[in-house]
Input
Amino acid sequence: MSGQQINRVSGRVVIVLSFTALVAVLSGYTQPPQADEGAVAHIFQLSIVALVPMILLFLATADWRQPWRSARPLAFSAAALVLAFGALYYLEHYR
Output
Protein backbone atom coordinates (compact mmCIF):
# COMPACT_ATOMS: atom_id res chain seq x y z
CA MET A 1 0.00 0.00 0.00
CA SER A 2 1.29 3.44 -0.86
CA GLY A 3 1.27 6.41 1.46
CA GLN A 4 -1.57 8.02 -0.49
CA GLN A 5 -3.76 4.92 -0.13
CA ILE A 6 -3.01 4.72 3.59
CA ASN A 7 -3.90 8.39 3.94
CA ARG A 8 -7.17 7.94 2.08
CA VAL A 9 -8.18 4.92 4.18
CA SER A 10 -7.14 6.53 7.47
CA GLY A 11 -9.06 9.69 6.54
CA ARG A 12 -12.21 7.66 5.98
CA VAL A 13 -11.69 5.77 9.24
CA VAL A 14 -11.27 9.07 11.12
CA ILE A 15 -14.58 10.31 9.72
CA VAL A 16 -16.37 7.03 10.47
CA LEU A 17 -15.07 6.93 14.06
CA SER A 18 -16.10 10.55 14.64
CA PHE A 19 -19.61 9.96 13.36
CA THR A 20 -19.80 6.72 15.35
CA ALA A 21 -19.09 8.75 18.49
CA LEU A 22 -21.75 11.29 17.48
CA VAL A 23 -24.37 8.62 16.82
CA ALA A 24 -23.53 6.91 20.12
CA VAL A 25 -24.16 10.14 22.01
CA LEU A 26 -27.32 10.96 20.08
CA SER A 27 -28.71 7.52 20.84
CA GLY A 28 -28.56 8.50 24.53
CA TYR A 29 -31.37 10.99 23.87
CA THR A 30 -33.70 8.15 22.85
CA GLN A 31 -33.28 6.25 26.12
CA PRO A 32 -34.34 7.11 29.65
CA PRO A 33 -31.50 8.09 32.01
CA GLN A 34 -29.68 5.04 33.32
CA ALA A 35 -27.79 4.60 36.56
CA ASP A 36 -24.98 2.62 34.94
CA GLU A 37 -23.04 3.08 31.72
CA GLY A 38 -24.35 0.96 28.92
CA ALA A 39 -22.75 -0.54 25.86
CA VAL A 40 -23.27 2.69 23.93
CA ALA A 41 -21.04 4.58 26.36
CA HIS A 42 -18.29 2.04 25.78
CA ILE A 43 -18.69 2.34 22.02
CA PHE A 44 -18.28 6.11 22.38
CA GLN A 45 -15.17 5.68 24.52
CA LEU A 46 -13.61 3.14 22.18
CA SER A 47 -14.24 5.28 19.13
CA ILE A 48 -12.57 8.27 20.79
CA VAL A 49 -9.57 6.18 21.85
CA ALA A 50 -9.26 4.68 18.35
CA LEU A 51 -9.30 8.17 16.85
CA VAL A 52 -5.91 9.08 18.32
CA PRO A 53 -3.76 6.60 16.36
CA MET A 54 -5.87 7.08 13.22
CA ILE A 55 -5.38 10.85 13.30
CA LEU A 56 -1.65 10.38 13.84
CA LEU A 57 -1.50 7.95 10.90
CA PHE A 58 -3.50 10.37 8.77
CA LEU A 59 -1.20 13.27 9.64
CA ALA A 60 1.94 11.18 9.06
CA THR A 61 0.83 10.17 5.56
CA ALA A 62 -0.76 13.48 4.50
CA ASP A 63 0.46 15.30 1.42
CA TRP A 64 1.15 18.76 2.78
CA ARG A 65 1.69 20.19 -0.69
CA GLN A 66 -2.14 20.18 -0.86
CA PRO A 67 -3.12 21.32 2.63
CA TRP A 68 -6.83 21.89 1.89
CA ARG A 69 -7.25 18.37 0.56
CA SER A 70 -5.49 17.00 3.62
CA ALA A 71 -7.50 19.13 6.02
CA ARG A 72 -10.96 18.23 4.66
CA PRO A 73 -11.34 14.88 6.53
CA LEU A 74 -10.04 16.53 9.69
CA ALA A 75 -12.61 19.31 9.36
CA PHE A 76 -15.50 16.82 9.04
CA SER A 77 -14.13 14.84 11.96
CA ALA A 78 -13.69 17.93 14.12
CA ALA A 79 -17.24 19.10 13.40
CA ALA A 80 -18.67 15.71 14.34
CA LEU A 81 -16.59 15.61 17.52
CA VAL A 82 -17.61 19.11 18.59
CA LEU A 83 -21.25 18.13 18.13
CA ALA A 84 -20.71 14.82 19.96
CA PHE A 85 -18.99 16.36 22.97
CA GLY A 86 -21.48 19.24 23.08
CA ALA A 87 -24.39 16.80 23.00
CA LEU A 88 -22.70 14.66 25.64
CA TYR A 89 -22.20 17.66 27.90
CA TYR A 90 -25.85 18.63 27.54
CA LEU A 91 -26.97 15.05 28.10
CA GLU A 92 -24.87 14.66 31.26
CA HIS A 93 -25.59 18.05 32.85
CA TYR A 94 -29.05 19.14 31.82
CA ARG A 95 -31.00 16.00 31.12
In short: DSSP finds three helices and no strands in the chain. The longest helix spans residues 67-94. The chain has a mean pLDDT of 93.
